Amino acid sequence: MPTPSPKIPATVITGFLGAGKTTLIRGLLQNPGGRRLALIINEFGDVGVDGAVLKGCGDETCPEDRVIELANGCLCCTVADDFVPALETLLNRADPPDHIIIETSGLALPKPLVRAFTWPAVRSRVTVDGVVAVVAADAVAEGRFAPDAEALAQQKAAMEAGDATVEHETPVQEVFEDQVLCADLILVSKTDLVDEAGLAAVAETVKALRPTAPPLVRVAHGDVDPNVLLGLSAAAEADLDARVSHHDTEEDHDHDDFTSFVAELPSQADPEALVRRLGEITQRFGILRLKGFIDVPGKPMRLLVQGVGARIQTSYDRLWGPAEARGSRLVVIGETGLDRAAIEAALAV
After folding, report:
1. pLDDT by residue (tens digit) across 33-47?
2. Which homologous superfamily is 8-242 in?
3. Domain boundaries, the chain
4. What residue spans of the chain are helical by DSSP H?
5. Taking the CB of the first residue and of the last residue of the chain, which one, N or C, has fewer CB atoms within 10 A?
6. Start-to-end CA span in the chain (Å)
């Protein structure tokens, strides 16, 4: 009898909006440790910014035909329609990957995605090597996810006792908690933006939420040894009951607490002035995330904009294509209730 082929490992990389998942993956592509990688990328919004950034890296270890983008949705809600077919596409290649990397939307809950690996179509062919949660040190230290560690510990105890009525301070906190509770490895990103007291606050927050959490691995600029990320052999799909989620008692999950839209901007002659204006706009309207590409007249390259809260970063990522229409578009993400008309008016200047 022939020996069954070993399962292809897959790593789920989760983390809230702007935690640094794409930066981490780009570093992994540049240093894959000899592995032939493939990517499935999901974004909350119509402009595939993360996919465009990763496809633009030009790294031969992961050519564009091994990058699958699933935009305008969230994998935890579209497993049957989007994720499983995408996974099968990679598995059915003549040269299947050695390892599959799945970057979830910052608003995705990882547990429903891990559960998809128990489906008959994939369970004999692929396994979840590990769930990696990327936690932004600056965001946690500033209290965006868990301003009260004691209250967080009480919520965790209530969840484990089966209390489905636990309330949360914000929808942001709820998503963050689900991501940490499902993780086999927790990476603390953006460590260059906080001091040791801030890093201690991150550790305290995670410990309050999950006393038995795996050790925290500090990362700056997405630089991490691929052997730290890959090869965990967690088989997470066989360990679902131990991964507590706020939505374990729900048949369906949606993202009614969050909204996104794409805003068109005119060309921007002064990128520095744009950064200042975007910082002010995000603060004024409570925007969680901004990302997209800007046309700067006279510049042959497109300007990549990445904003988390009021912190806006820009860089020129690649040349505009010869047949590519130059333009400026930003994905705006926030909690439901954003004043779209007012934000678009502010951005249109």
Report:
1. 888 888 888 765 544
2. P-loop containing nucleotide triphosphate hydrolases (3.40.50.300)
3. 8-242, 258-348
4. 21-30, 49-55, 84-91, 110-115, 137-141, 149-160, 171-181, 196-209, 226-229, 271-285, 340-347
5. N
6. 69
